[in-house]
Amino acid sequence: MKPFNLPQDFLLGTATAATQIEGGNTDNNWHDWCRQERIKDKTTCARANDHWNRVEEDVALMKMLNQKVYRMGMEWSRIEPEDGKFDSAALSHYREEIQLLLQNGIKPLVTLHHFSHPSWLCGKGEFENEAVLGYFERYVKTVVESLGDLVCEYITINEPNVYVTNGYFFGSWPPGKKDFKLVLKVLRNMTLCHIAAYKLIHKIRNDKDFQGQTKVGLAMHLRVFHPYSKSPLDKLAAIAMDYLFQGAVTKSMSNGRLAFPIGVGAPCGKGRYYDFIGINYYTRSAVHFKGFKDDVFPDTPRNDLNWEIYSQGLYRLCKSFYKKYKAPIWITENGTCDREDRFRASYIYAHLYEVSKLCSEGIPVERYYHWTLMDNFDWVEGESAPFGLIHLDFETQKRTVRKSGWFYSEICEKNAVTEEMIEKYLK
Known about the structure:
Layout: E1 4-5, E2 11-15, H1 18-21, H2 29-35, H3 55-64, E3 69-73, H4 76-79, H5 88-103, E4 107-113, H6 119-122, H7 132-147, E5 153-158, H8 160-169, H9 180-208, E6 215-227, H10 232-255, E7 277-288, E8 293-295, H11 312-325, E9 329-334, H12 344-360, E10 365-371, E11 390-393, E12 398-401, H13 403-414, E13 416-417, H14 419-425
Parallel strand pairs: 2-3, 2-10, 3-4, 4-5, 5-6, 6-7, 7-9, 9-10
Antiparallel strand pairs: 1-13, 7-8, 11-12
Helix pairs in contact: 7-9, 8-9, 9-10, 11-12, 12-13
């Protein structure tokens, strides 16, 4: 390992999702899923991190750890608990949280949909129903008109490809369906929702003459797809899986022209519907043609969820997507599951080293949001998959900064990894 520097204006922070940390909310699709005992460790998002009641404590931790940016989620079901009825107290709560972040020198990036939505929307067909476009626009309008004087940066939808793959192809996430036709229908509707939200956010902020530059984009889950062997069939399968999982949906949402097999034409008009390239990166896939299987290469380093640790993939994806879309890159999620905190520091080092290489080559990577601030409710894994810089005792809600958290704090402070930091944290 060797020292490296990041640009002085490079911004580092953390990312979270509302449903995974807030606790106390029981009117969303994920809590409904928990009630059905679909979570591996039988825990529930109703507990999570109690962040809703501990905002001041958690923002103080972010400041102590020298974070300059924070990606936070809005819980749609809190803001609109009933169809068409908005909760002013919930919006005030988010407003106070954002003001607290700004007072502590932390810039918020707001995510509008991060896998979770109100239970009432489930009864209306969720994203399967084309009417969701109107519901989503109404929700986005309310949030941006309420918070737009404080927040100029938004992610419309987090990882639509993961939401659809798990919810409609494998059936392992809500709504628990296995229907490829619905996969395509939901991707189409989510594309239209993103484009409508992109236009709406810019219009509202322009009309209101809010201060600050408006930036809107997606957070897309991207991974490297490698053929498992040198077989031409495995190579073909890797290309196909790459396109079906991430290529077609990213293209559709970015320029408005629906890519095969999602649809045809440009229902909302062609354009450029992103102001930055949001990349969530964790691992790569080893692809078999037989069974169209997503595997892991043998004898490779793995995290606690058996995901391969492959930092070079971040470099490859950033170069590839910058070449295609020509916009600043924000790494909106990157992190690892490591209960004992044995390799998280080296994971952070390896991935930020790749970022430093990209920056030195003139690729405009501007931000890095580590996933995540503290251990949380991790969807179907429940409380059993710790990704946090901060350890959380879910029973007592005690927060304890891990050694890797202190390492990341020093990187945030210095925008560099020094010889002393390597000796202190990585030897």
